[in-house]
Amino acid sequence: MPIAFLLTxxxxxxxxxxxxxxxxAQIVDVVSEFVSLKRRGVNYLGLCPFHNEKTxxxxxxxxxxxxxxxxxxxxxxxVNFIMEHEHLSYPEALRWLAKKYHIxxxxxxxxxxxxxxxxxxxxxxxxxxxxxxxxxxxxxxxxEGMALGLSYFRERGFGDAVLHKFEVGYCNERRDDFTKKAxxxxxxxxxxxxxxxxxxxxxxxxxxxxxxxxxxxxSLSGQVLGFGGRIIKSDPKAAxxxxxxxTEIYHKSRIVYGIFQARQAIIKEDxxxxxxxxxxxxxxxxxxxxxxxxxxxTALTQDQIRLIKRFTPNITMLYxxxxxxxxxxxxxxxxxxxxxxxxxxxxxxxxxxxxxxSKKVSDEEFKRYLKENETDFxxxxxxxxxxxxxxxxxxxxxxxxxxxxxxxVIPDQITRTVYVKECSTQLGMPEEVVLDEVMKLRKQPxxxxxxxxxxxxxxxDGRTGTGAGTGSGLWGDQQGSGTNGSxxxxxxxxxxxxxxxxxxxxxxxLLIRYGAEVLTRYTDKETxxxxxxxxxxxxxxxxxxxxxxFENELFTSMFEEITFTVEQGLAPGDKQFVHxxxxxxxxxxxxxxxxKDSLSLIWGKHGAYVETEEMKLKEIVPDAVLxxxxxxIKIMQKEIRKAMIEAAGDDGKISELQEQYKxxxxxxxxxxxxxxxxxxx
Length: 681
Ligand SMILES: [Zn+2]
Fold this sequence. Notes:
This protein is an alpha+beta fold and 681 residues long.
């Protein structure tokens, strides 16, 4: 029931606040925080953050306040976007938007248990934010922090601007200094333990990061998720770096260090530099290069690559001039190629890392070095392996296999061809041989399963050239050309159980899209009064008079809401549902609104249908109602058949059921006739 549903969802946030949030949240503004959008007619277009694509099919309509990806089918309003993108619950997403638009949230009364449960993640974020502030305070104003931490940064040439930008800090050496301070300031120790700042050893609480300089790790939106801590004093027993363990809010494999500070620059430069350590990132910022992130020492994960790919397809990896280290890190690089990224490599002079080298030379020299020494990844790898395999035939065979593998994972066919050409020259082998190997590898079932969906390339190719929508309909021509791909994906995602799923859905679509449109006008010749029947009036009357029900629960609640609205004398509208507090409903409605007139598509196949839906409401609406009724009859017939089996032996009961069945069949025939033979049974 809609009312009960509203109550559970909104128990935390006052209803008028939710409305204010929905009114303030501009879809283009919200999406642009994470995706770079380009204007296309009345809409905006960008690369979908929810699936891997090279040609943009992710569309944002500022007029409707919705987004829709015609590649993977994801769609919804601004709140749905934040939920999906930031992996937040509905109330969390509302809070996120409230913060962005400086809307104060009116809290409702809730039980302490509810509050504790709902706020767990938020409480952890509050603690990490406090910790970052406290550590910065220690570093810049504390006696110990200034003597040990700040001097460390100063010696390495870091200025205040960069240190503040990254909110670096210092955790004092006394084992429980931070924990004690935080508890005294009113923070709960359970959240400090949960967020990895405090360790609880049989009731004794102490700091994980004591005696370390602190690098907060920020989310894309700037929240502190965790920390990296570097030891200052040389202590052979202590690890040089300690990081926050996996927590409810910090997932090492999903974030890269520095992305919050780098995202604007990455978009602007259309390139992302990848380095290894926290101080490498800071040093690069110090030289004026701000499009840089760090993988924090581990090989890149797919999530991290996709995170970077939202902003640019171009990644340049900086390596210290240490051959052993390079070989180790090359292993993970095929994954970056698989994602369709353009990968380049810069090798720093022997014994240098970005931090040390940027200090050694001037900013200008450093920048020039990066530009002049940038090598394409596959060329780089080939040359490296050639050097290594000199005069060793076995190693040489392995080398060819390695290079072929790297080429084979590249999703784009043209790029692959270019590499085959180049590498065959470099390797001194005929082009056909290399190409043959690449094709053989791509055909292996294990390779295909791991690297692509069958037919993925075809779908992507089919979409090329569709970007220039002029915005004629809701989405311009974007949608028409993406139809095949998006429809099959959508169908795959949703497996309707009910026989009548599609006819029920169509009824709701017509109600939401055309509910307020006039279907018939009738003037009483004697009294002269005019009776107007809207689409909503017609459908609701037809369904209620026959006492028909929706099988699908979600549809049932939507139909009830629409009926309620109409009974209040109001017109049902799409906005009511696009902004619906139930995300299942709002995303469904966005799907409905962004589909091309589905009936006309079906009929178009048979050749005749050319007019738009709106012109044809007089036919479409009654037909949809008949189809709906036809499906209900099918369900009833199925039930009768089942009852007949159960009544086996009881002749009286069976003949009674047979009579009922006959009635249904004749009704079905009438419906088919009413549909002009279009009903497919
Ligand atoms: Zn998508």
